[in-house]
Amino acid sequence: MNTPLVNAPGNASGLAPAVAAPAALPILPRPSAEEFAAVLEHGAYMPLPQFGVIDVTGDDAASFLHAQLTNDVQHLDAANARLTGYCSAKGRLLASFLSWRSGDTIRLLVSKDVQAAVQKRLSMFVLRAKAKLVDASGELAVVGLAGDVRRALSGVFDALPDGVHVQVDGTAGTLIRVPDALERLRYLWIGPKAQVDALLASLDARLKRVSPAVWDWLDIRAGEARITQPVVEQFVPQMVNFDVLGAVNFRKGCYPGQEVVARSQYRGTIKRRTSLANVAGELDTVRPGTELFHSDDPGQPCGMIVNAASAQGGGVDLLVEIKLTALEAGSVHLGAADGPALRFLTLPYGLPAEI
């Protein structure tokens, strides 16, 4: 069912250029009870090696990205970040990004396992545009902070973002507020590695350092899907609620897959969405890309796991793309109709009523 990301426009023979197989994201051990409690009861920070950063520079950087991504990059200002997607010609997501400006550079935060392939693919479309894409992951640290962290952060940044996807810049880099999870504040701090590492030591007296797996769990509880290698080209943006999350601008100009995305939005009914769920098990068996089956229709899948993370209360929390009709009655199971049953939870945001 998966279509490899290497299916990009190719040479005269029609074959796509070779792209090295991406390194899979490691399966992170289950965080301890103390690590979950640090976020929920106090405050914590976590370095995030599961992300990479692509820097896009040049006079045409904004216009080039605007013509490639689902959101408006042309009018992205220095005070805000935006969630956006990158689609194939068929409207299927190849990657998801958080985008923001840092001086004259536009930065794209992306899942590390798809970074090399999407950077190569985007670079193929630069053509005569004055734009250059560079892997900045080696020079930058990406840190997540969650919970009661504002006082600690005020010792690093002169001001803190006052709204979701608002950013502030300082000598230590960029601080972006991202959607809350379980009513806890969350921030991303991206800055020069040596400087960030030195400053993190000063936070240890106030904040607990926890596993990056906690951030994966918080992203899921925030209802924000992340495109990783196992689910590349599986979903149009609406299937992962990107239209609801503001990651798609339906008034902007064309981008790859735009006609498919627009048709999905305006043809009347969106039949598949992403829901929040929990299932018994561990991450070695509950993985993104695993298909789901409904008790009343065991012969064909009704959905797929988008993201999975060890849950505080046990088992694995999931974002699952699923047929809306599968949620109306019966039960949904992992891997087969007799597999573990999913328990559905409430997303932290509402979905449009489908008529």
Structure, explained:
- The chain has helices at 33-41, 61-66, 112-124, 150-153, 193-203, 212-221, 258-266, and strands at 43-47, 51-57, 82-87, 93-102, 105-111, 132-135, 140-147, 167-170, 173-181, 184-192, 208-209, 272-279, 291-294, 297-310, 316-323, 332-334, 343-345.
- The protein is an alpha+beta fold.
Number of strands: 17
Mean pLDDT: 92
The CATH architecture designation of the largest domain is 2-Layer Sandwich
Class inferred from helices and paired strands: alpha+beta
Q: Which parts are unreliable, with pLDDT below 50 for 5 consecutive residues or more?
A: 1-20
Q: Tell me the Rg in angstroms.
A: 20 Å
Number of helix segments? Answer: 7
Dominant shape: globular
Quote the beta fraction.
Answer: 25-35%
Domains (count): 2
Strand order of the largest sheet: 8-9-10-7-1-11
Order of helices and strands: HEEHEEEHEEHEEEHEHHEEEEEE
Primary descriptors:
six-stranded mixed β-sheet, Elongation Factor Tu (Ef-tu), domain 3, 2 domains, alpha+beta, 7 helices, disordered N terminus, 17 strands, Gyrase A, domain 2, 355 residues, six-stranded antiparallel β-sheet
Quick rundown:
The chain has 355 residues and is an alpha+beta fold.
Give the arrangement of secondary structure elements.
Elements lengths: L32 H9 L1 E5 L3 E7 L3 H6 L15 E6 L5 E10 L2 E7 H13 L7 E4 L4 E8 L2 H4 L13 E4 L2 E9 L2 E9 H11 L4 E2 L2 H10 L36 H9 L5 E8 L11 E4 L2 E14 L5 E8 L8 E3 L8 E3 L10
Parallel strand pairs: 1-11
Antiparallel strand pairs: 1-7, 2-5, 2-6, 3-4, 4-5, 7-10, 8-9, 9-10, 12-15, 12-17, 13-14, 13-16, 14-15
